[in-house]
Design goal:
The chain is α+β, with helices and mostly antiparallel strands. Helix content is 33%, strand content 25%. α1 packs parallel to α4, α2 packs parallel to α9 and α9 runs antiparallel to α10.
Length: 433
C-alpha cells in the first residue's frame, strides 16, 4: 500500500539507507492506541503504515480494561471481535484493606455510557486489535523498529511543509526510510519519540516497581467475584497494594506495587519475592492457597513517565508514549484509546484542509482526563482516597460519581469529580478524616 520514492542513498552511521516510502500516516507501535488509531484513519481513506518492534502476540501488562474504553473500541469498528474473543467479563472493582471490603459496580455510575468491559490477557487482546486494524487496510510490519526521525524545519521549503522522515530498521538489520505526512507515536513504554526528540520530563511520582505473574489461581472462595478486579492494601503499608485480575480460563494476573526500596527488602527470585509479600496479607494469602505459580514473575521499575508536550510539528504522542501514571486504577488502555480517537479526529480534519489547533483539540483535552486520574492516584497513595472508599456511610450519589471515574469517565464534565477534581477530592477527604 506504500508508495516507494526513488532510491535515497543517504548514509546513517551503520549502513546505507536505500529506499524512501511515502505514506499518509506512520504509526510507531501496534498496541491498543496504535491499532485503534490505524483503524479510525483507514476509515477516513488514509494510507496507514504501522511499525511494530515486537512480533505479535507478545506479553504486555495492563489487563484490566475500563468501560469507557469500550466506546472507542466500538467507534473503531472492533467491538464484535472483542466480544467474540471470549475474554473475562468485568463489571466493577473491589477493594480490601485489613479485612474491610468494598466494591463498586460500574453499571451504577453517574456518567452515561458503557458500564461493563473485560479483563484480558494482553497478548491476545492486543493481537485481536492489530488484526482488526489490518482488516480495515492498515499495513503492520512486525519486528521493524523506528531508529531515527527528521522533522521538517519551519520555513525550510516553500509550499506545504514536509512531514517527518523516519528511519526504520528491518528484521534483517537493513534500514529504509519512510516519508510520512504525519507520525503518531503509539510505542507505549518504548517511548520512541520522547527518546529521539528528547521530550521526556521527570515524573512527580516516587520510583515504584510492579512485581507480577500470571498464575493458575485455584480460587474456590464462593464470595470472590471474578467479574471485578480486586485491589488489596498491604496491612502495614498503605502505599503498597496488590492487584488480582481474574481471567476467563481459571488464571489471573497477580501483582504487587511498591516503592523499589520496599521490594528490595525481599530475597530470592522474583516469584519468591512476590509470594513472600503476599504471605503478609492474610486475606490474599488465603485466597491464593491453591494457586499454581507456573510462570516466572516479572518486574517493571520506574514506569511513571511524562513529557513536556504531547504533540509537535508533524507528530503526536498517544497513550503511554506520552504519559503513564500508575496502574492502581487501570487507566492505561483507556487513556491510550481515548488519545487515538482524539488524534484521529484532528488528523482527519487536518488532511481535509481544515485549520486545526493541536493543543486546543488534542493536547489540552487529553491532559484534562489524565490530570483527573493523576489526582485520584495521588490521593490513593496519600491515603485520602482510601479513607473515602472504605467509609461506611457513603452517599449513593457520591459513590456513583466515584464509580464513573473508576470506570474511566475522567473526561465527563457533568461529573464534579472530573470537572473540579482536586477541590472535590480534598473536600471529601476532609469529611472522612
Amino acid at each position: 500500500m506504500s508508495n516507494i520514492a526513488p532510491a535515497d542513498k543517504t548514509n546513517n552511521d551503520a549502513e546505507a539507507v536505500e529506499t524512501v516510502e511515502a505514506v499518509d500516516v506512520l504509526i510507531s507501535g501496534a498496541g491498543p492506541s496504535g491499532a485503534v488509531a490505524a483503524a479510525l484513519l483507514r476509515q477516513q481513506g488514509l494510507q496507514v503504515l504501522v511499525i511494530e518492534r515486537e512480533q505479535f502476540p507478545r506479553f504486555s501488562i495492563g489487563e484490566s480494561l475500563l468501560p469507557q474504553s469500550m466506546q472507542y473500541l466500538e467507534q473503531a469498528g472492533m467491538l464484535q471481535a472483542i466480544v467474540e474473543a471470549g475474554f473475562q467479563f468485568k463489571n466493577g472493582a473491589a477493594f480490601m484493606r485489613n479485612g474491610c471490603y468494598t466494591d463498586f459496580d460500574f453499571r451504577d455510575k453517574h456518567s452515561n455510557g458503557w458500564g461493563t468491559t473485560y479483563q484480558v490477557q494482553r497478548a491476545d487482546f492486543d493481537h485481536v486489535l492489530a488484526r482488526e486494524a489490518e482488516r480495515f487496510g492498515a499495513e503492520i510490519r512486525y519486528r521493524h523498529e523506528v531508529t531515527a526521525i527528521e522533522l521538517a524545519e519551519a520555513g525550510s521549503t516553500p509550499g506545504p511543509k514536509r512531514g517527518p522522515r523516519v528511519t526504520v530498521r528491518a528484521p534483517d538489520g537493513s534500514h529504509y526510510r519512510v516519508q510520512a505526512r504525519f507520525m503518531l507515536d503509539a510505542s507505549g513504554f518504548g517511548r520512541v519519540l520522547p527518546r529521539l526528540l528528547k521530550l521526556e520530563t521527570p515524573s512527580n511520582f516516587p520510583v515504584r516497581s510492579a512485581l507480577f505473574a500470571h498464575i493458575a489461581d485455584g480460587i474456590n472462595d464462593p464470595a470472590f467475584d471474578r467479574n471485578k478486579i480486586r485491589v488489596t492494601v498491604h496491612p502495614q503499608h498503605d502505599d503498597v497494594w496488590f492487584w488480582t485480575i481474574p481471567f476467563a480460563d481459571g488464571r489471573c494476573s497477580q501483582g504487587v506495587v511498591a516503592e523499589t526500596g520496599f521490594l528490595e527488602r525481599y530475597q530470592g527470585t522474583k516469584t519468591e519475592r512476590l509470594r513472600a509479600i503476599i504471605v503478609e496479607e492474610p486475606s490474599l494469602h488465603t485466597l491464593l492457597t491453591n494457586a499454581r505459580w507456573d510462570t516466572p514473575a516479572r518486574q517493571i521499575t520506574g514506569y511513571s513517565a511524562n513529557v513536556d508536550r504531547l504533540w509537535g510539528e508533524g507528530y503526536a504522542l498517544l497513550g503511554n508514549a506520552g504519559e503513564f501514571l500508575d496502574p492502581v486504577f487501570s487507566s492505561g488502555v483507556t487513556i491510550a484509546v481515548k488519545s487515538a480517537s482524539l488524534a484521529a479526529g484532528v488528523l482527519a480534519r487536518q488532511f481535509a484542509g481544515e485549520e486545526v489547533d493541536w493543543q486546543a483539540e488534542y493536547g489540552a483535552p487529553l491532559r484534562k482526563g489524565v490530570d483527573t486520574f493523576r489526582a485520584f492516584v495521588e490521593s490513593w497513595y496519600a491515603g485520602g482516597f482510601q479513607k473515602i472508599i472504605f467509609r461506611k456511610d457513603q452517599q449513593p450519589e457520591i459513590r456513583r460519581m466515584i464509580a464513573s471515574i473508576l470506570a474511566g469517565y475522567a473526561w465527563d464534565p457533568s461529573n464534579p469529580f472530573a470537572r473540579d477534581t482536586p477541590r472535590r477530592l480534598a473536600a471529601l477527604e476532609a469529611l472522612c478524616s
